[in-house]
């Protein structure tokens, strides 16, 4: 079984009370641990804490922790998970994140590309996702399956690979996504595939602001390889009004990508091209 950060509802209607431990403290009184409390009492306590503190493993019961210090929510703690508004998972050895996220507004993840399943996350405003060693197609599929209602997305891919002509006819869409910030490290040999980033945009029909930050090898300057935009089916980005490209090197892929977007975005008012490269920042789209 994989190492999951999961939560699932249980059929019991009443709180389950675990037997108290028999150990005593220095004063001879029984030592009561967090996991000994009834579920309804535990949920009440956690609901009073700031959201950032709830998700810190240091405040979780010992049985919620895995061997590497990452939180694992047991089924009887679904009430706590459903009230969570902020979740940050950094460099954890888990293979899937799944739980009821009805009130979650901010999700931050940094690690390998894994499946997400944040159920009923209709209030998810911001997501900052950093995937290590991911193919862009797999990253997009994980986000479409797990965060379809996110409104603002920062996606950073390190050592990713770009695939050719994927998701051009994908039926899945981000239903509320309006601000996209792509932070890409372009590896050697993939400069000819930059144009295919439009595949991701086709899944964001309501996009209003697009930021693309390129960081690549020196040969990206004026690179003259890759397809032309005429080879890509057109797709109108009706709501897009602001485009910002950093790390612009006048490579054919960058130019064709930019022209494709401009030709299909009738409402664009601001276009910014910057030859500077991005610096990793711990912030969400503004």
Question: Which helices and strands occur, and which strands form pairs?
Answer:
Blueprint: E1 4-6, H1 39-47, H2 51-54, H3 78-83, E2 86-90, E3 96-100, E4 106-112, E5 116-119, E6 126-132, H4 136-146, E7 152-158, E8 179-186, H5 198-201, E9 209-216, E10 242-246, H6 252-263, E11 270-274
Parallel strand pairs: 1-3, 2-4, 3-5, 4-6, 6-7, 7-8, 8-9, 9-10, 10-11
Report what the structure shows:
- There is one protein chain.
- The chain has an eight-stranded parallel sheet with strand order 2-4-6-7-8-9-10-11, with no helix packed on it. Strands 1-3-5 form a three-stranded parallel sheet.
- The longest helix has 12 residues, at 252-263.
- Strand 10, helix 6 (252-263) and strand 11 (270-274) form a beta-alpha-beta unit.
- The two termini are 39 Å apart.
- By secondary structure, the chain is an alpha/beta fold.
- The protein is elongated and about 75 Å long.
- Mean pLDDT is 75; it is low at 7-21, 55-69, 71-80 and 282-286.
- It contains six helices and eleven strands.
- The chain has helices at 39-47, 51-54, 78-83, 136-146, 198-201, 252-263, and strands at residues 4-6, 86-90, 96-100, 106-112, 116-119, 126-132, 152-158, 179-186, 209-216, 242-246, 270-274.
Features:
alpha/beta; single chain; 6 helices; eight-stranded parallel beta sheet; disordered C terminus; 286 residues; elongated
How many H/I helical runs?
6
| Shape category | elongated
Radius of gyration: 22 Å
Largest sheet: 8 strands, parallel
**How far apart are the first and last residues' alpha carbons, in Å?**
39 Å
Strand order of the largest sheet: 2-4-6-7-8-9-10-11
